[in-house]
Amino acid sequence: MGEDSIVATFDYNMRQLTFSSPNNASVASQSIAYTYTDSGIRLYEDAEIGTAKLSDFSYASDGMKFTSLNEGSGNFVMNGVMPEDYVEYDMYAGNYVLNYFIQDGNELLPLTINVTLTPSEDGTSYLMSGLNPNFDVVLNYSRQSGSLEWNTQVVGQQGENLIWLNAADMSAGGSLYPGYTGAGMITKWNGDEENVAFDWVSNGDINTSTDSFCFWLTDANGNSLGQFREWSINGYAIITYITSMTKTK
After folding, report:
1. Beta-carbon neighbour count of residue 138 at 10 Å?
2. Which of 32, 62, 69, 172 has CB atoms 3.0–4.6 Å from 56's, for a disulfide?
3. Cα(105)–Cα(116) distance, rounded to whole angstroms?
4. How many Å apart are CA 205 and CA 210, to the nearest integer?
């Protein structure tokens, strides 16, 4: 706008749009909530960019372009740029080999298990089946990062008690927070569209790192009752040192 470059950053999860100027520190950063319209988006408050006030934008998918509809905006246009490693929702569907390691004495033994990712009807998550016939794992899709999120979650019940597939940090001796759903792992795409694979890495939660999951039992009030050993994955009540999954078709 004028001589200033304006960067608009979308937070799809929080529906916030942040305007800033990388070449002019005197231009105040503005974060404003937005909603979707039939033709694009509308800001809940005006964004003041130079002398212009912006609030309504039309969207053209060709080039991911948002054009201001406000008078006096000088044909203000936002041209979208996606990260190179961004993964669209539909790309995840299919069959995979999940790769991980199990501790055997002083050695780590590589193991695999076949899993299938099935999209949800509302396009917000996937169900991962194949670990155990008693349950599927919910993998939430982040529109912001294009990644899948595998977090601690309830996968069944034993009477009134809850069976969790609980995130754990085996690299730190197996530490875990029973029933804490902020802990988990996220996908990182290898960038190869022909031979699709994703690394599983810790989600960066400030309380704990994650490299594994185990079955855990709590009562209905969240009180820990210890490890649940009646279910297994490849014969173990824990799946440790998860590294990646490779798409087979």
Report:
1. 19
2. 69
3. 31
4. 9
Q: How many CB atoms lie within 10 A of CB 211?
A: 20
Residue with tokens 């069976």: 163
The amino acid that residue 192 corresponds to is: D
Q: Please list the pLDDT of the chain residue by residue as tens digits (249 residues).
A: 455 577 888 887 788 888 887 766 656 688 899 999 999 899 999 888 777 888 898 998 777 788 888 887 777 888 878 778 889 999 999 999 999 999 888 899 999 999 999 999 999 999 999 999 999 999 999 988 899 999 999 999 999 999 999 999 998 888 889 999 999 999 999 999 899 999 999 998 988 899 999 999 999 999 999 999 999 999 999 999 999 999 997
Nearest CA to 38 among 59, 12, 7?
Answer: 59
What are the two backbone dihedrals, phi and then psi, of residue 190, each rounded to the nearest 5 degrees? -80, -5
- Dist CA 41 CA 163 (whole Å): 42
pTM: 0.82
Q: What are phi and psi of 241, to 5 degrees?
A: 50, 55
* Burial environment of residue 226 by CB neighbours within 10 A (0 to 12, 13 to 18, 19 or more): exposed
Reduced to 3 states, what is the DSSP secondary structure of residue 171? helix
* Cβ atoms of 64 and 18 closer than 8 Å: no
**CA 77/CA 60 separation, integer angstroms:** 11
CA distance 148 to 162: 24
What is the 8-class DSSP label of residue 236? B
How far, in Å, are 40, 124, 189, 200, 238 from residue 116 at the CA level?
A: 35, 17, 17, 16, 19
